[in-house]
Amino acid sequence: MIIIDGNGCVLGRLASVTSKNLLEGEEVVILNAEKIMLTGNKEWAYAKYKQRVDRASISNPRDLGPKYPRRPDDIFRRTVRGMLPFKKSKGKTAYKGLKAFVGVPAEYADAELTAVPEAEYKNLKKGIELGEISKLLGATF
Questions:
Q1: Which phi and psi angles does 100 have, rounded to 5°?
Q2: If DSSP codes are grouped into helix, strand and coil, which group holds residue 125?
Q3: C-alpha to C-alpha distances, 135 to 26, 67, 95, 103, 140, nearest whole angstrom
Q4: 139 phi and psi angles, rounded to 5 deg
Q5: Which helix (H) or strand (E) segment is 127 a member of?
Q6: pLDDT tens digits, residue range 38-75?
């Protein structure tokens, strides 16, 4: 089991490392999902996710999908799902090995964390935390 602290990691980079580990048969736990960073400015990131959340209501009021999550842990899980072959059985079984949490649950408080140097948020000028985007989308966590 790999336990990763999402504090200060870039969303896409962390998701790609996580999906590779999941496909290798590992179980991955992500802590502090609300502190994962999105690169780019706030307006662009909000517009991107707001469009995804609102897509069902704009296209057809009777259509109830596709659903897109608002909570930061669910957004991360959805990002990883997009990097897995989810329509095949190996992708679905790999996806079941992923757990993402807002904050640090009591059961993982004393766990040894694994660092992901490829996903560190460094030397980037613009960025916003996933938790801030979620609050703008109306999530409560």
A1: -130, 140
A2: coil
A3: 31, 17, 26, 15, 7
A4: -80, 145
A5: strand 127-129
A6: 998 899 999 999 988 887 555 566 666 678 899 999 99
